[in-house]
Amino acid sequence: MIAPTIRPEIRPATIDDLQQILKIERRAAAAFAAIGYPEIADGAEMPLALFEAGLEDGLLWVAIDAADRPLGYALAAMIDGFFYLEDISVDPDHQRRGIGDALVVQVIDHAKFLYCPALVLSTLEAAPWSSALYRKHGFLAADMDRLPGAIVERFDAETALGLPAQGRIIMVRRL
Amino acid sequence: MAKGYWIARVDVTDMEGYQAYVKAIGKPLAKYGAKYVTRGGTYEAVEGASRARNVTLEFPSYEDALACYRSDDYQAAIPLRQSSADSELVVVEGYDGPQLGESA
Is A2 among the domain residues? Predict the structure, then answer.
């Protein structure tokens, strides 16, 4: 059975959401094992400091249910004037209901609100729930050689944290 | 209880400075329960002078809206806006009375 599409409410995350956000991150990461990236499922956790920075900078949002419980989150950062989308994850029990779409829309709106020229992210091309979602919202795969140095540095830093360099692409959406 | 609103009209002159301002106001806005009603939306200046950005924030009450403006965190952010944008801001009490077409 396919769960009905919902239009979730999205609000800025608070410190009280952090535990649930970390739980969603781990639960969503488990799906990477099935597409040949067990190292993401079993390790390569996103550092807590990234989430804390997102809270501090107002760049962490949660999609919530009627009881105000986070079902998914979006985490971004500003890098050299670009809006860098660190991660969007949705709890596996609530995927395929439009929550990821709603979070992408929120992030695009906020980047526009901040007058950013473009949104940038890195993702695994083989993860259909990820690269396809971003393509649907206007992201295009970018040529690594033509990206600003600070973006490439962030990509390399993510690789150093345990994300695979092979098969991971950078996508850009102009605003 | 009637809600409270901030109504702001803004012309941003310095993108990076304005980004720093938006970052700085996240905490006080969240603390006082603010919600964006309008912010970067499409608009049409049908009469009079206008600015490029028209922001409406809703607070649980007029008192909250004023307290947020007067909070130390928001006051600390004001210079960031003043140096990166031309703007006006009013704090206004919401209206809870009968609406047109409603029977008494």
Answer: no
Residue A122 contacts residue A168 (beta carbons within 8 Å): yes
Give the domain extent around A127: 9-174
Contacts of B12 in chain A (CB under 8 A): 115
Do A67 and A60 meet the contact criterion of CB atoms below 8 Å apart? no
Number of inter-chain CB pairs under 8 A, A vs B? 27
Residue A1 forms part of a structural domain? no
CA-nearest of A127, A175, A117 to A148 is A117
Chain B: give the shortest CA distance to residue A25, in Å: 24
Is the residue at A4 inside a domain? no
Q: In the numeric block, which tokens belong to residue A127?
A: 């993860």
Query: Residue A112: its chain B contacts at CB < 8 A?
Result: 40
- Domains for chain B: give ranges and CATH numbers: 4-43+53-93 (3.30.70.100)
Q: Count of domains in chain A?
A: 1
Residue A75 maps to a domain: yes
Q: Which residue has the higher pLDDT, A166 or B48?
A: B48
Exposure of A110 in the CB half-sphere (CA atoms within 13 A) = 28
Q: What CATH number is given to the structural domain containing A166?
A: 3.40.630.30
> Among A106, A71, A77, A109, which residue's Cα sits nearest to residue A90?
A71
pLDDT per residue, tens digit, chain A (175 aa), is 456 677 789 999 999 999 999 999 988 888 777 777 777 777 667 788 999 999 988 899 999 999 999 999 999 999 988 899 999 999 999 888 899 999 999 999 999 999 999 999 988 887 777 888 999 999 999 988 888 889 989 888 888 887 877 888 899 999 9
Task: Pick the closest to residue A57 from B14, B39, B25, B16 (CA basis).
Answer: B25
